[in-house]
Design brief:
heterodimer, A: mainly beta, 11 strands, 0% helix, B: mainly beta, seven-stranded mixed β-sheet
Chain lengths: 112, 115
């Protein structure tokens, strides 16, 4: 079963704008990770945030985690056409013995 | 350092046949996980192996099986193929396994089409 649910399912923006994607999950977690997937390709790890962290940055990426609301958000600032991809959150739940459970993903389209 | 290598990249089978997919993890990675990705169900966890032992298994029928060799290479097998098994099968390796799962490194996947 899916642990994470992502919102929105699809997002279309212009180059230079910011993109925000949200992820909600159901059970307690060790960490939450964000991945990117270009069409039909493998997933690429973007960022990992642990359950005791609230915010993390990596380049143009900013991830927040609110464990009380069981939610996370991924912000991509100053988006580029090359950011067009699907973005997935994945949770490492405490009772899952180390496997990642992925959300359904947000399909981001950045128009030049 | 070479990435995760999956073979074959594309294959077409007919219902009732079986298929074996191969995954070579990044050198030094001892954990290998398999995922099935379909448009309807998204990314579904199949199983995870660490040091030749299956540590976790997803909710898939017994037709789906896997194994890991002493060099950490892994194979998954699907027997008696059904149309619904058409999917992108993704393999991922990582340095750690169990408890806190770290970053997964994914291969490009094996795209299986069942006719």
């Amino acid at each position: 079963s899916q642990q994470g649910e992502e919102d929105p399912q699809a997002l279309s923006i212009q180059e230079g704008e910011n993109a925000t994607m949200n992820c909600s999950y159901k059970t307690s977690i060790n960490n939450l990770q964000w991945y990117r997937q270009n069409s039909g390709r493998g997933l690429v790890h973007l960022i990992l945030i642990r359950s005791n962290e609230r915010e993390k940055h990596s380049g143009r990426l900013r991830v927040t985690l609110d464990t009380s609301k069981k939610s996370s958000s991924l912000l991509i600032t100053a988006s580029r056409a090359a950011d067009t991809a699907s973005y997935f959150c994945a949770t490492d739940a405490n009772n899952q013995g180390g496997k990642l459970i992925f959300g359904q993903g947000t399909e981001l389209s950045v128009k030049p | 350092k070479a990435g995760v290598t999956q073979t074959p990249r594309y294959l077409i089978k007919t219902r009732g046949q079986q298929v074996t997919l191969s995954c070579s993890p990044i050198s030094g990675h001892r954990s290998v996980s398999w995922y099935q990705q379909t448009p309807g169900q998204g990314l579904q966890f199949l199983f995870e192996y660490f040091s030749e032992t299956q540590r976790n298994k997803g909710n898939f029928p017994g037709r789906f099986s896997g194994r890991q060799f002493s060099n950490s290479r892994s194979e998954m097998n699907v027997s008696t193929l059904e149309l619904g098994d058409s999917a992108l099968y993704l393999c991922a390796s990582s340095l750690v396994a169990g408890g806190d799962t770290g970053e997964l490194f994914f291969g490009e996947g094996s795209r299986l089409t069942v006719l």
